[in-house]
Design goal:
It is a single chain. 11% of the residues are buried. The longest helix is centred in the middle third of the chain and has 36 residues, at 185-220. This protein has helices at 30-50, 52-60, 83-92, 98-107, 114-130, 132-136, 146-149, 154-161, 170-179, 185-220, 248-254, 260-270, 277-283; strands at 243-247, 292-295, 313-314, 327-328. The chain has a domain at 22-177. It contains 13 helices and four strands. α1 runs antiparallel to α4, α4 runs antiparallel to α5 and α12 packs across α13 (277-283). It has a two-stranded antiparallel ribbon. The chain has a two-stranded antiparallel ribbon with strand order 3-4. It has 329 residues and is mainly alpha-helical.
Length: 329
């Protein structure tokens, strides 16, 4: 019993309860079981098979790609690997451990049906059929690991408890980082004090700007047009436009915006100091001082002002929840 440092209980209290299934008392946890557990084991085994130096070298050679983190110095030097870093590592190790990664991604679906659950079973079966390679290569003596065993109960838990985002600990882990990590009391106090000061200043600044806006509107009169606020940070455009020197009339026809020139006149007038509705209406009757504009197909916001999301639009009745058939990205 001295060796049982975890305080192992040989006869748990629920052993003879007739309607107790202990597996339903422990819900699946995508963060700690799949990413910080299963995938961490896989990454360690890949480093043993290829050696850390060789795996780092191959990772460094990967070209940068949108949505994929580029580990320019490899992964062996990372310490205290977070769940987000594990997720990014999984994206670049896809070719090595496809079956187990398929299972991890399928387990995170926010909507499931019998087809998606069958896909999870198929991915898990594929993993079982090929997992012996890690034993053959002598990177591990066996795969009798609790977090790998937990994969067997995911499909049943989803049927009984719903999708895994209902009980994933990622949300609470993020709160834990802000409120409980680093048990240094002075450091936590200083951090909370700074957060309160930032929020107080933000509220004060918002109130001041609102008062200035009301004052400006009162001075300009009821028929005034407010000056568009200047952005906190500029919108970044590429150095070279996608379609340079396009006639405004051509743009209106090509992009189906027949009133583009009118809106452009109004916007330019509104940028002027002291613009009024009368001046905007007058500007609409004038000619633009230019007839050609540059067209950009992309631009960038600063991190404080924008974010990029992928939107998938259903375009027909043939759309499926597990494929891109009948969908437009």
């Amino acid at each position: 019993m001295k060796q049982e440092v975890s305080g192992y209980t040989y006869r748990p209290f629920w052993d003879e309860l007739p309607f107790c299934d202990i597996h339903f008392c422990i819900t699946p946890d995508v963060l700690h079981q799949l990413y910080q557990g299963v995938l961490r084991h896989i990454i360690t085994w890949c480093q043993q098979i290829l050696t850390e130096k060789e795996l780092d070298c191959r990772i460094c050679c990967l070209p940068p790609a949108y949505g994929v983190r580029h580990f320019k110095n490899g992964i062996s030097a990372l310490s205290q690997i977070s769940g987000a870093e594990c997720k990014n590592m999984g994206k670049i190790l896809l070719g090595s451990v496809r079956a187990i990664l398929d299972f991890i991604y399928l387990a995170q679906y926010s909507l499931h049906n019998e087809d998606t659950l069958r896909y999870m079973d198929d991915a898990l079966n594929s993993w079982h059929q090929n997992k012996s390679c890690f034993i053959d290569l002598k990177v591990h003596e066996d795969l009798n690991i609790p977090k790998f065993h937990s994969l067997e109960h995911y499909v049943e838990a989803i049927r009984f408890l719903g999708t895994t985002d209902n009980y994933n600990t990622k949300m609470f882990e993020c709160l834990h980082i802000d409120f409980a990590k680093k048990d240094e009391f002075p450091q936590m106090t200083c951090w909370l004090s700074r957060q309160e000061n930032i929020h107080s200043f933000d509220r004060e600044l918002t109130w001041v700007l609102e008062q200035r806006s009301l004052t400006s509107e009162a001075a300009l009169g009821p028929a005034s047009v407010p000056t568009p606020p200047s952005p906190i940070r500029p919108i970044l455009l590429p150095k070279v436009p996608t379609s340079p020197n396009k006639l405004i009339t051509t743009v209106q026809n090509t992009h189906h915006v027949p009133l583009f020139s009118q809106h452009l006149k109004a916007y330019i007038e509104m940028l002027k100091q002291g613009a009024t509705r009368h001046s905007v209406d007058f500007a609409l009757t004038q000619h633009l001082p230019f007839q050609w504009i540059d067209i950009y197909h992309s631009f960038k916001f600063s991190p404080e002002r924008g974010r990029f999301d992928t939107v998938i639009v259903l375009t027909g009745d043939a759309a499926e929840s597990v494929s891109l058939i009948g969908m437009l990205i």
